């Protein structure tokens, strides 16, 4: 089983060694320009066009991340980049679910215990206990209910919060109220106190968190964006923060990364930011997932993680 590997920043030698050590029969090589020799599988991130073009012998391509918007953008611009019929897989959950749970829970508890308010009081040298929020009034609404959304929802249920999710199709997760489709989005938003975004990046979801959506949330709500910057209209969020409709925002992703210095998000007192680190690919878990998926394909089964090229996730 011949595997070609390309990633512009990963330690290629580590990946080659560990893939070969963990996948029986795998012969892994780092792809170099001009390499047109046979390959059964390709592991890629932002691959050069010539790496995949014309490789009709591929059994599958793996994108080395949970998001596949970059390679789908390449395919849209260059339809001949990947021969038709070759499946594309993403890393469904290679340690990312736990990381998303840690990130989301820590920030929700920060808001729930009013640490943001106490930090502002500290800056003003004020000593004033505040009324507690009640769990029943702190509904968590999760946009996107796939693998990562399900993990985050489960963690919020464990902390005793009312939890709801919204997605294209209805879900059946313990302790979670499911809303599905555009017609049910207003009902999902009504009463939501913390909006957590974990939507896939598709043309239908671009700009979904806009002024109209934010105004439908419960007053003084919170926004946590963990998916893609393109989902959020940043100027609309800033206006909602200034009006008080949104009390606080935690942003890990932005419309342009790195975030330009001129962006007012840097200086807004009710915005906390991190540089797209909420969940990163953890190589050991990724190797295990890739190996398991390859062996399933070799056995003739259809493992999870395959990307629907029409839907974009």
From TrEMBL:
The entry's active site is 228, 276 (proton donor)
Give the EC class as a word.
oxidoreductase
Record carries keyword NAD: yes
Name its cellular compartments. Answer: Cytoplasm
Q: Which GO terms describe its cellular component?
A: cytoplasm
- Domain D-isomer specific 2-hydroxyacid dehydrogenase NAD-binding spans what residues? 106-278
* Keywords annotated in UniProt: Cytoplasm, NAD, NADP, Oxidoreductase
This entry's Gene Ontology molecular function terms read:
glyoxylate reductase (NADPH) activity; hydroxypyruvate reductase (NADH) activity; hydroxypyruvate reductase (NADPH) activity; NAD binding
- Give the InterPro entries listed for this entry: D-isomer_DH_NAD-bd, GhrA_Enterobacterales, NAD(P)-bd_dom_sf
**Which Pfam families does the entry link to?**
2-Hacid_dh_C (PF02826)
Q: Which reaction does it catalyse?
A: (R)-glycerate + NADP(+) = 3-hydroxypyruvate + NADPH + H(+); glycolate + NADP(+) = glyoxylate + NADPH + H(+); (R)-glycerate + NAD(+) = 3-hydroxypyruvate + NADH + H(+)
Q: What is its EC number?
A: 1.1.1.79, 1.1.1.81
Q: What does this protein do?
A: Catalyzes the NADPH-dependent reduction of glyoxylate and hydroxypyruvate into glycolate and glycerate, respectively.
Protein family: Belongs to the D-isomer specific 2-hydroxyacid dehydrogenase family. GhrA subfamily.
Entry protein name = Glyoxylate/hydroxypyruvate reductase A
What organism does the record attribute this protein to?
Shimwellia blattae (strain ATCC 29907 / DSM 4481 / JCM 1650 / NBRC 105725 / CDC 9005-74) (Escherichia blattae)
- UniProt lists the gene as ycdW
